[in-house]
């Protein structure tokens, strides 16, 4: 309700508003308007509260003294802010568990194959970090939603990051299901590489399913996120809500975005059924197939897929009903946190605890290969002897890639700084060069125990009757030879 406006009350000297006296000439000169619905005075550039417990003063030059901005924190933290802080802390803790799982399951112990890339097992944890970050920002923004007198950036941030969390949450569940199917394929391929060709109906389905899923997921993103979000803070009065905030929060783009998220959820269910159908024991008949699908599905998917459907159902309902919308500051916070943030956090924590209990896939595959080798050996009657303690050291390069093996070979041959390091290592180990005998020495003659002694050798039998010749051989004093190895003999 506008109580004064320029010329209409130019003859009035002053007015008392909520117990405070204001010069109407000054207010009219600077085009200030009093709104009785929310007890604020504002013009195009400034807004101030004129509540009974506040006593702002306006000077003749338009300067406000002891004024309180309309967008400053005025109230205390309510249920929305308290629950927002709680979920922000929970999402922050989940990031630490997600990083631990990323390091555990993203580490390689086998050579990477072109058919099964390491990035495939890491995408789930990347999406979980993204969702947790959105939850932290949205939960922290809820504090200012409760405290601000008039809504501003806080409600925009919480609404923005809540809707941004939806495509990330779809990515978490999808990557978990897709990689589980890929892991089943990898185990079957490791047993028999020719059992799963790459040009059959199964492989064509696995090629198109990710494309269709991300088509709907990105459609949800582009319909919800790139828009003008400034209308969400227009909730100062009922007239403003009906004119701006409610139509913006329930427009057709949010409706189509929620429907596209549901289509992506259907693709996730299809991928799960595909993996069970091709990589698990088959069941005949519709009833047996349904029971087998539930039995063969991991427990985490039986929990996370329905939880994801709850979040999608809430966003779909909020796109039609303003009373349920996360951007409505007057809505019951149970809808937002009970159907929005709680299922999201449960999806993250279920995947994290499941990842902590599961082993690294490379280690699991190594154990399967060892078990198959022992089974084959037992079938042919071969018993493996226990390997000595140094066997592991001698076979430490069995998991190297071809490039790493080539680099190791060049290191053994030498060259450049590598050779310098080898020479330094040989010197430190005390490897001495082999002593070679001189040309005038007889290598197979024993050296005399006493050095420096002269003796004569005479030819007793002489057919020509010549005088006997004497040869004097003297041994020189030298250090006795030290035999280091059999190569020195």
Protein model, in words:
There is one protein chain. The chain is mostly helical and 489 residues long. It is built from 14 helices and nine strands. It has helices at 24-29, 79-105, 119-147, 153-191, 201-224, 238-249, 252-279, 286-296, 299-318, 333-357, 361-380, 391-394, 402-413, 417-429; strands spanning 14-17, 20-23, 33-35, 40-42, 47-49, 57-58, 64-65, 454-457, 471-474. Strands 3-4-5 form a three-stranded antiparallel β-sheet, with no helix packed on it. Strands 1-2 form a two-stranded antiparallel ribbon. A hairpin with a 2-residue loop joins β1 (14-17) and β2 (20-23). α4 packs parallel to α7 and α4 (153-191) packs parallel to α10 (333-357). The longest helix has 39 residues, at 153-191. The radius of gyration is 42 Å and the shape is elongated. The protein starts with 13 loop residues before the first strand and ends in a 15-residue tail after the last strand. Residues 1-13, 449-478 and 485-489 have low confidence and may be disordered.
Elements, N to C (H/E): EEHEEEEEHHHHHHHHHHHHHEE
Q: N-to-C terminal Cα separation, in Å?
A: 114 Å
Q: What is the 3D shape?
A: elongated
Query: What does the oligomeric state look like here?
Result: single chain
Percent helix, as a range, is 55-70%
Query: Helix- and strand-based class?
Result: mainly alpha
């Amino acid at each position: 309700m506008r109580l004064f406006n320029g010329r209409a009350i130019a003859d009035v000297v002053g007015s008392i508003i909520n117990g405070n006296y204001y010069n109407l000439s000054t207010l009219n000169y600077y085009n200030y308007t009093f709104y009785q619905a929310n007890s604020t005075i504002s013009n195009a550039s400034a807004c101030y509260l004129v509540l009974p417990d506040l006593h702002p003063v306006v000077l003749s030059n338009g300067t406000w003294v002891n004024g309180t901005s309309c967008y400053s924190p005025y109230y205390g933290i309510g249920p929305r802010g308290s629950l927002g802080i709680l979920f922000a802390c929970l999402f922050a803790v989940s990031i630490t568990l997600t990083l631990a799982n990323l390091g555990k399951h993203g580490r390689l112990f086998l050579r990477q194959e072109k058919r099964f890339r390491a990035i495939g097992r890491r995408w789930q944890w990347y999406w979980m970090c993204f969702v947790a970050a959105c939850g932290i920002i949205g939960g922290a923004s809820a504090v200012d939603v409760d405290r601000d007198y008039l809504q501003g950036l806080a409600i925009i941030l919480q609404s923005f990051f809540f809707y941004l969390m939806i495509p990330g949450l779809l990515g978490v569940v999808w990557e978990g299901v897709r990689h589980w199917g890929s892991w089943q394929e990898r185990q079957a391929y490791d047993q028999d590489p020719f059992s799963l060709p790459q040009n059959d109906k199964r492989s064509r389905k696995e090629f198109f399913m990710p494309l269709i899923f991300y088509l709907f997921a990105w459609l949800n993103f582009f319909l919800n996120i790139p828009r003008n979000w400034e209308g969400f803070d227009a909730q100062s009065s009922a007239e403003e809500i009906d004119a701006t905030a409610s139509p913006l929060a329930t427009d057709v783009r949010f409706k189509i975005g929620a429907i596209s998220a549901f289509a992506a959820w259907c693709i996730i269910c299809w991928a799960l059924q595909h993996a069970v159908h091709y990589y698990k024991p088959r069941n005949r008949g519709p009833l047996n197939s349904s029971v087998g699908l539930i039995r063969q599905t991991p427990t985490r998917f039986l929990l996370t897929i329905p939880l994801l459907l709850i979040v999608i159902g809430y966003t779909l309902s909020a796109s039609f009903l303003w009373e349920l919308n996360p951007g409505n500051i007057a809505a019951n916070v149970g809808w937002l946190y009970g159907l929005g943030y709680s299922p999201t956090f449960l999806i993250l924590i279920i995947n994290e605890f499941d990842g902590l209990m599961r082993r690294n896939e490379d280690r699991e595959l190594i154990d399967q290969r060892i078990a198959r080798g022992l089974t084959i050996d037992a079938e042919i009657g071969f018993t493996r002897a226990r390997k000595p303690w140094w066997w592991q050291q001698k076979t430490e390069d069995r998991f190297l890639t071809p490039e790493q093996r080539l680099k190791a070979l060049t290191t053994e041959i030498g060259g450049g700084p590598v050779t310098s390091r080898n020479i330094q290592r040989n010197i430190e180990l005390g490897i001495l060069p082999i002593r070679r005998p001189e040309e005038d020495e007889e290598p197979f003659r024993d050296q005399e125990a006493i050095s420096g002694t002269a003796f004569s050798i005479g030819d007793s039998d002489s057919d020509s009757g010549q005088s006997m010749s004497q040869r004097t051989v003297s041994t020189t004093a030298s250090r006795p030879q030290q035999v280091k190895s059999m190569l020195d003999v």
